[in-house]
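User: two proteins, same treatment. go.

Assistant:
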Amino acid sequence: MKILKTYQRITFYMVNEIYNEDCFITMSNMNKIIDVVLTSPPYNMTKRKGGPSDKGRYDKYIDWKDEQEYLGWSVNLFNNFNKILKRNGVVLYNFSYSIENPSLPYKLISYILQFTDFQVVDTIFWKKPKSMSHPASYNRLNRICEFVFVLSRKKETKTFKTNKQITKTSTKGQNYYEVIDNFIEAKNNDGSNPLNKATYSTELCDKLLSIYAQDGMTVYDPFMGIGTTSLSCKKRGLDWIGSEISKEQIEYGNTD
């Protein structure tokens, strides 16, 4: 067991656990103990016609805030990432859009660049085997790719680490590194269930962690759901911490 401490107070957080609480509560009790944030947040893209009782994709979270509220919530999220990430930590932020809000990813990144200490250092394109179709639209293309934004603190854009290996060194001492393209093919998700119709992809998590996570690192997912990120961390021998507001999803993941 590891004991995680903050400067303000001592809080006992065991690694390799999903905490049934809002991620802002979890992050308020951590201080620079995370190496990689890997997550797929709610995309704010499931506007429903069924009224307040229709929660959409999730059993607890209603995935349709007012746009300005959502952007403010996202800025608050990244400002908290800044508090929990170690020096040279990275955020791997999977994000997409729907037919209702195709410009939201660009607004989101604009807000993060303006109002947080983070900078986009890479944009990865995640290609899925199956596309999100728009059969009723005469002018919208099927969406088969999603973004994974890679972000570091603005002062650490040249110092954050990856697992790229040196392939050769010049006579002048210049290192050259293996080629890793910003295009990842991975399955859509780990399967829908009654509690979460938008589960994450273990295959994608595996491939991202193989690039950005090193032995001894700790990974945090603030929207753990049924535990997809934790499965990838277990496979790679990494420590992890998760937050999830749905007790039912945590229990589902533990028994799946």
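Protein 2:
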Amino acid sequence: MRPKNHETLALLITSILVFSLVALTSCTTPTPEEPTSEPSRERAQYEIKPCSPTIPLETKRADVIFHNGTIITMDTNFYLTQAIAIKGERILATDCDECILSLKGDETKVIDLAGKTLMPGFFDGHTHIIASGLHKKKLDKAQGTALSYGFTSVTEMEGDRYLIGNLMLIEEAGQLRLRVNVFPNYNTAELDENRRPQVLNPVDAWYTENDPILDSERMVRVPGVKVFTDGAGLPRRGYPALSFPYPETAKSQY
């Protein structure tokens, strides 16, 4: 989970929770739930994380603290907490208000969530917003749009040497504000004279001379390639493969 700017927080809504939370007012451990015979999968998915008795003194002071809210941690236990402390791009700790506020330093920015919910950034598995922004020389605006809706990672389902090369330069300059997974094209959506997808020109293809970029610490990753195996609409691109005959009414629209 990566923290989002303060403007993004305004878009987070408390209605994503399907049950009411009892406000925590101290760093004491909540009373355990009564035993139940129901299967655990039938119970509420989220539980309130017991507060830590203390935060280690050697823990660094936070750059940013979000408190007085509901933090969805997305850890293996799906715990909820009240506050979170951030140092750089790393999470120092998630815990109750009292414990996390103990990590406040002289220069720590403290943000009161006022009961709102803070959750990990969304991940868009198929988009072209970054490529479009880069080609139109409006990358910063494209990134801002994605972040404003809570997206902190996107997958660009197209890519050539120009796109990936420029994204890597932008990453190196520290100007990439969200993680981008790029799947460079193996072929195009256009059909050749035999009505087969055309393999991308080697001059434009990125993957032919480069290894995948799988480092999870990178802002730019290239984990695979995009392959067209059937049509994508319009006569010049062929019709998509279907398990039943393609409707004649739909064909007439192309």
